[in-house]
Amino acid sequence: MASTVVKFVEGMQFVARSTSGHAVLMDSSEKVGGNDSAARPVEVMLCALGGCTGMDVISILRKMKTEPKDFCVEVIDRRAPDYPTIFTGIHIVYRVRGSVPEANLKKAIDLSLTKYCPIVNSLAGVAEITSEYVIDPG
């Protein structure tokens, strides 16, 4: 079983130590007692979602020998208006530059969203997950 430890530093700053030994710093705004020195925990979760599905897509495209020149994942969240302001929707935009066949990109995205990314699949039970892709052949 894996263990991540999240330690209070000061103000509202916390440092998480992952099972691989790497640190992730989190903080809040000054308005609620933080120093605005790092991303908020929910932002870190959305970053993890983008990184997880992005790594899947790049890995699958590499296996297809169609790696893009440039690639980014934009994660757009929609949240409930009242606390606990859970995610009600998450839209993921995959932006690819290079000569990546559309069929390859679509397959890589579909595999990530339905099979490989545990973060997407965990959140899918809570929020509506939608996606799109944009290919710039440049």
Report what the structure shows.
The protein is an alpha+beta fold and 138 residues long. It folds into 2 domains: 1-38; 41-136, K homology (KH) domain (GMP Synthetase, Chain A, domain 3, 2-Layer Sandwich). The chain has 3 helices and 6 strands; from the N terminus they run E-E-E-H-E-E-H-H-E. The chain has helices at residues 41-63, 102-116, 118-123, and strands at residues 5-10, 13-17, 23-26, 70-79, 87-97, 128-136. The strands form 2 sheets. A 3-stranded antiparallel β-sheet has the order 1-2-3, with no helix packed on it. A 3-stranded mixed β-sheet has the order 4-5-6, with helices on one face. A hairpin with a 7-residue loop joins strand 4 (70-79) and strand 5 (87-97). Helix 1 (41-63) packs across helix 2. The protein is globular and about 50 Å long. The model has no long low-confidence stretch (mean pLDDT 97).
Q: How many DSSP H or I helices?
A: 3
How many strands, which pairing sense, and closed or not: the largest β-sheet? 3 strands, antiparallel
The overall pLDDT, averaged over residues, is: 97
Spatial strand sequence of the major β-sheet: 1-2-3
- Overall strand count: 6
